[in-house]
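Journal club side-thread
Mid-discussion, someone asked how the predicted structure for our own chain would compare to the paper's figures. Pasting it here so we can look after the session.
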Amino acid sequence: MAKKKPVKKKYTDEDVNTLIQKKLAKEREKKQHEVDEAKKLAKMNSEQKQKYELEKIQKEAAEARAELATYKMRDTASSMFKEQGITANDEALDLVTTSEADSTKTNVSKLVKFAELIKEETTKELTKGTTPRVTGKAQTITRDEIMQIVDPVERQQKIAENMSLFPEYK
């Protein structure tokens, strides 16, 4: 029979109550706004109501157009980054995207220049230092030099590393 692991609470009762209170306050505010809107409309005559509704719809349409333009500019900015060989995440796109093409293009070019600067500095940092002076040639040791080593452990190690010098041990 498998034992159930005790479930850790993610939220305390106080946290849940706070979340519920915030949600209720938000809903009350929304409801109050609707009531205020209805009172405002009730005070207006039919012509004023039509004018108000028209202004409200025009404002919503302008906001929708601006949001659509921003999404289109987001796609444009993404393709501009790809042309430069940069894969931009959502945060980078949010940073550079505006509803206007000129400002989005300017922002993208500034961010690309910044990325290139970081790349250059990183490359400089990684490549600075001195070049090793080893030529790649293995150090050669003779049989006599090995036999002159006083320490027996080190001498045996050198014999093992250079068996070609000691054919009698093969």
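Post-session note: The first helix runs from residue 13 to 43.
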